[in-house]
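R.M. (postdoc): so does anyone remember the format we settled on? I'll just put the structure tokens first.
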């Protein structure tokens, strides 16, 4: 759509390797306050993802960005996206096509979340997943350290069959644990998608709504032909590529709701 989305770079981000569940990835960290794990979308920690991270830092959070794929800071290009996608589609760490799947990367995220929670104020941490990593935010919430999962356009498993379209992106045992946390502990999740996004089928959100009920808050941005905001038919990245710093812009409002959700769940330590 017209206009440009926010971008940023690696300035001010510290980098250190973190090992969990048998995997080691570099993690970029910045900020003070309650903790948020921001998991990149394909192709990695792009300038758009870093802009979202910087915004969260400015709003009073400690942000940790793991780098399980791609080259942090590298701009998006078609070749870059396709190259990363080709590797991820066959990576056992992510199991891109599997249904009812426990994905090893979720175990890594849970370990990272526990570590961040041990170093930051509040009752736990938030986890934001986007696109390829969207569902991992909910899978991370199997661990008590995660109290604010945000699923932005969760696309795994790739919705190429009816079974994959309804799959929530984690194993049944993991999902049952998350549902129990919602029922017994007040865990809530926030989901975001565009209405015409074929990569994030409405059936997947229906599954989450059916099991989580009011504990699953949904923001759906209209991307139908002729929509007022001018989103294209392929609109996908709610919090990055489709966002404009324009008052009243739907994706900007969605980002502000994400900040509000994190503040509500992580406690009063966040900056005003």
């Amino acid at each position: 759509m017209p206009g440009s989305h926010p971008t940023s770079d690696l300035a001010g981000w510290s980098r250190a390797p973190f090992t969990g569940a048998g995997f080691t990835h570099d993690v970029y960290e910045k900020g003070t306050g309650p903790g948020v794990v921001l998991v990149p979308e394909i192709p990695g920690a792009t300038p758009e993802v870093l802009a979202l991270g910087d915004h969260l830092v400015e709003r009073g959070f400690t942000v940790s960005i793991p780098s399980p794929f791609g080259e942090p800071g590298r701009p998006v290009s078609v070749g870059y996206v396709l190259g990363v996608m080709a590797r991820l589609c066959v990576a056992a760490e992510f199991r891109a096509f599997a249904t009812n799947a426990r994905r090893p990367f979720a175990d890594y995220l849970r370990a990272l979340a526990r570590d961040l929670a041990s170093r930051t104020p509040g009752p736990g941490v938030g986890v934001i997943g986007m696109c390829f990593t969207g569902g991992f935010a909910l899978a991370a919430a199997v661990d008590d350290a995660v109290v604010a999962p945000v699923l932005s356009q969760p696309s795994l498993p790739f919705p190429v069959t009816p079974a994959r379209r309804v799959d929530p992106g984690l194993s049944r045992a993991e999902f049952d644990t998350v549902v129990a946390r919602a029922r017994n502990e007040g865990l809530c999740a926030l989901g975001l998608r565009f209405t015409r996004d074929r990569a994030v089928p409405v059936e997947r959100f229906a599954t989450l709504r059916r099991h989580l009920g009011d504990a699953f808050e949904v923001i759906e941005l209209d991307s139908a032909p002729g929509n007022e905001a001018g989103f294209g038919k392929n609109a996908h990245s709610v919090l990055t590529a489709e966002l404009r710093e324009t008052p009243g812009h739907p994706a900007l409002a969605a980002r502000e709701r994400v900040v509000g959700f994190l503040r509500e769940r992580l406690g009063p330590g966040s900056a005003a």
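R.M.: ...and that's the designed sequence above, right after the tokens. Also worth knowing: Residues 250-266 form the longest helix (17 residues). Residues 14-266 form a domain with the Rossmann fold fold (CATH 3.40.50.1820).
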